Amino acid sequence: MNEGCRRAGSGDLPVLEALAELAIEEMSPLRGGSVWSRREARRPPVAEGLRADLANPDVCVAVGAIDGTVVGYGTVRVEPLHDGAPIGRVEDIYVMPDARGVGVGESIINHLMDWAADRGCIGVDSLALPGDRHTKNFFETHGLVARAIIVHRKLDPSR
After folding, report:
1. Which residues of the chain form beta strands (DSSP E)?
2. For residue 26, what are the contacts with CB-CB under 8 A and spacing of at least 6?
């Protein structure tokens, strides 16, 4: 089994769209996922946002593959901080469940981190939902640790 990662191209758009939709479907029922899916997740139709990201020089879209078959993807966006320093924000990282645990996610995150470092980013941020231990552990393995916690209280909009 040969796993690897490469920069995505426009020909990858159909598989990127399918993977993004799978990620949203998997994350939405998790704790915090209901608001995440309406705030941080890609807006439908996801293909439009992915197409824009593929053309944006401030975004890297990468695909991870096993034996040449794409089974995961990730994106990182460079954003300026208030003082002008750039920071990378991993907006997407997803590997199909049957392809996890063999290094595809590691290849993707390393590709995204290298790309952000090459652009002078002072760091990389991402998001893990509360209780999603696998994602939290994955990020911590790659040096990403909590620097902020978002708190939330659900309200009854009918009152």
Report:
1. 3-7, 59-66, 69-80, 86-95, 124-125
2. 94, 97
> Tens digits of per-residue pLDDT, 126-153?
999 998 999 999 999 999 999 999 999 9
Q: pTM for this one? A: 0.93
Decide: 36 and 27 in contact? Cβ < 8 Å.
yes
Q: Which domains does the chain have, with CATH numbers?
A: 3-141 (3.40.630.30)
Query: Cα-flanking dihedrals φ and ψ of residue 102, to 5°?
Result: -120, 5
Q: Give the integer Cα–Cα distance in Å for 58 and 88.
A: 9
157 preceded by a cis bond (ω within 30 of 0): no
